[in-house]
Design goal:
Low-confidence stretches: none
Strand order of the largest sheet: 1-2-3
Number of domains: 1
Helix content: under 10%
Mean pLDDT: 86
Structural class: mainly beta
Radius of gyration: 13 Å
Order of helices and strands: EEHE
Shape: globular
Largest sheet: 3 strands, antiparallel
Number of strands: 3
Distance between the termini: 25 Å
Length: 78
Protein backbone atom coordinates (compact mmCIF):
# COMPACT_ATOMS: atom_id res chain seq x y z
CA UNK A 1 0.00 0.00 0.00
CA UNK A 2 1.28 3.42 -0.92
CA UNK A 3 -0.69 6.52 -0.02
CA UNK A 4 0.79 8.77 -2.71
CA UNK A 5 2.21 11.15 -0.08
CA UNK A 6 5.35 9.18 0.72
CA UNK A 7 4.05 6.69 3.28
CA UNK A 8 3.75 2.98 2.59
CA UNK A 9 3.54 -0.49 4.02
CA UNK A 10 4.08 -3.98 2.69
CA UNK A 11 2.85 -7.20 4.24
CA UNK A 12 3.63 -10.81 3.46
CA UNK A 13 1.53 -13.77 4.57
CA UNK A 14 3.09 -17.22 4.37
CA UNK A 15 2.98 -20.60 6.12
CA UNK A 16 5.88 -19.23 8.20
CA UNK A 17 3.70 -16.39 9.54
CA UNK A 18 3.21 -12.77 8.57
CA UNK A 19 5.49 -9.75 8.50
CA UNK A 20 4.64 -6.10 7.99
CA UNK A 21 7.00 -3.21 7.42
CA UNK A 22 6.17 0.39 6.79
CA UNK A 23 7.36 3.94 6.41
CA UNK A 24 5.86 7.15 7.80
CA UNK A 25 7.77 10.10 6.40
CA UNK A 26 6.60 12.40 9.22
CA UNK A 27 7.58 10.03 12.02
CA UNK A 28 10.42 11.05 14.37
CA UNK A 29 11.67 7.50 13.71
CA UNK A 30 12.09 8.19 10.00
CA UNK A 31 15.59 7.28 8.80
CA UNK A 32 15.66 10.75 7.23
CA UNK A 33 15.49 12.35 10.70
CA UNK A 34 18.93 10.88 11.56
CA UNK A 35 22.43 11.87 10.56
CA UNK A 36 23.67 9.72 8.98
CA UNK A 37 20.45 8.38 7.48
CA UNK A 38 19.70 5.04 9.14
CA UNK A 39 16.82 2.83 10.29
CA UNK A 40 15.90 3.60 13.92
CA UNK A 41 17.78 1.32 16.34
CA UNK A 42 15.83 -1.81 17.17
CA UNK A 43 13.27 -1.62 14.34
CA UNK A 44 14.71 -4.67 12.60
CA UNK A 45 16.19 -6.40 15.66
CA UNK A 46 14.89 -9.88 16.28
CA UNK A 47 13.28 -10.44 12.89
CA UNK A 48 13.07 -14.25 12.68
CA UNK A 49 15.24 -16.14 10.20
CA UNK A 50 12.02 -17.29 8.52
CA UNK A 51 11.64 -13.74 7.19
CA UNK A 52 15.28 -13.13 6.19
CA UNK A 53 14.40 -13.06 2.49
CA UNK A 54 11.80 -10.33 3.19
CA UNK A 55 14.54 -8.11 4.64
CA UNK A 56 16.68 -8.42 1.52
CA UNK A 57 13.92 -8.33 -1.12
CA UNK A 58 14.59 -5.23 -3.30
CA UNK A 59 10.85 -4.59 -3.73
CA UNK A 60 10.56 -3.96 0.03
CA UNK A 61 13.44 -1.44 0.40
CA UNK A 62 14.26 -1.92 4.08
CA UNK A 63 16.36 1.25 4.24
CA UNK A 64 13.28 3.45 4.56
CA UNK A 65 11.52 1.84 7.50
CA UNK A 66 9.86 3.29 10.55
CA UNK A 67 8.27 0.03 11.73
CA UNK A 68 8.51 -3.72 11.22
CA UNK A 69 6.32 -6.26 13.02
CA UNK A 70 5.81 -9.97 12.54
CA UNK A 71 4.00 -12.98 13.87
CA UNK A 72 5.07 -16.57 13.60
CA UNK A 73 2.59 -19.44 13.89
CA UNK A 74 2.18 -21.02 17.30
CA UNK A 75 0.25 -24.13 18.20
CA UNK A 76 -1.81 -22.11 20.67
CA UNK A 77 -3.03 -19.19 18.53
CA UNK A 78 -2.30 -19.76 14.85
Amino acid sequence: MRDGLGDDYFMVFSPKGAILRGFDHESPMSPWQRDPIAVWPGVLDGVPEAFASFLTEPAFSMGDRTFCIWREPSDEHW
